[in-house]
Write a structure and sequence with these properties.
Blueprint lengths: L1 E5 L8 H19 L4 H8 L3 H10 L4 H10 L7 H22 L1 H22 L11 H14 L4 E8 L2 E8 H18 L12 H18 L2 H9 L1
Antiparallel strand pairs: 1-2, 2-3
């Protein structure tokens, strides 16, 4: 299921959302430019749960270096398809959330969701030596916020059926709810263990979504909080 557009116009240009996309693409190009040093680059700036716990426990490195990958990993990606898929979801859902929260609070939600997603992934793969990279957790947080802010929005969606493209329109409540349930089920029942399968950190997606919902309720303007209380 690939979202193509929603029917909620923004009241102002989503400059921060555009900036996040541009910065992420730029850093991906920097990542690709490392050439033979790519693996070392990913190991340094990606989030490696096992290394994080070891360094935290034994104090090999200064704390800023230990915690840095929690943030830098959000802006790295494992390839062009990984990057394009993430940036497309951010483009579709991020503008409206920024519209409600404003630039500063939207940035805080985005970064907190990404960091929170990494930490929740850590709970399910504490000894993993594989670097976790990608904005998926942060974007899942944006999607969690969108789920509560615009449940009735209509999402035009591309749904391939036996290699034939079909187009459906779902409410955000259905589209994002189904997406969240899939992440949870894949994380729970994956035959390759709870950390994920096929290189996908399912629990990071689940965690990012939940952190996004929490951050929305903490950061939303008062008029939006009143709406939550009445719902």
């Amino acid at each position: 299921m690939i979202p193509l557009r929603d029917n909620i116009p923004s009241s102002r240009p989503p400059y921060l959302n555009y900036a996040l996309i541009a910065i992420t693409v730029l850093l991906f190009l920097v990542e690709m430019a490392t050439g033979p040093y790519l693996q070392k680059f990913i190991q340094t700036y990606g989030f490696v749960p096992g290394r994080f716990l070891k360094e935290l426990w034994y104090g090999f490195d200064p704390l800023p270096n230990v915690f840095m990958p929690l943030l830098t990993s959000i802006f790295l990606h494992g390839g062009w398809l990984h990057l394009i898929g993430n940036m497309w979801f951010l483009y579709i859902f991020g503008d409206n959330v920024e519209d409600i929260l404003g630039h500063g609070r939207y940035l805080l939600l985005y970064l907190a969701s990404g960091v929170g997603a990494n930490l929740i992934y850590l709970l399910f793969a504490p000894y993993s030596a594989v670097p976790l990279v990608g904005a998926s957790g942060a974007i899942a947080g944006v999607m969690g916020a969108y789920f509560f802010l615009f449940p009735g929005a209509r999402i035009l969606t591309l749904v391939p059926i036996f290699f034939f493209p079909t187009f459906w329109e779902f409410s955000a409540y259905i589209f994002l709810g189904f997406w969240f349930i899939l992440q949870f089920l894949f994380g729970t029942f994956s035959s390759r263990g709870p950390a994920g399968a096929g290189g996908v950190a399912w629990w990071a997606h689940v965690g990012g979504f939940l952190v996004g919902v929490l951050m929305l309720h903490l950061l939303a303007p008062e008029k939006v909080r009143i709406k939550f209380r009445r719902a």
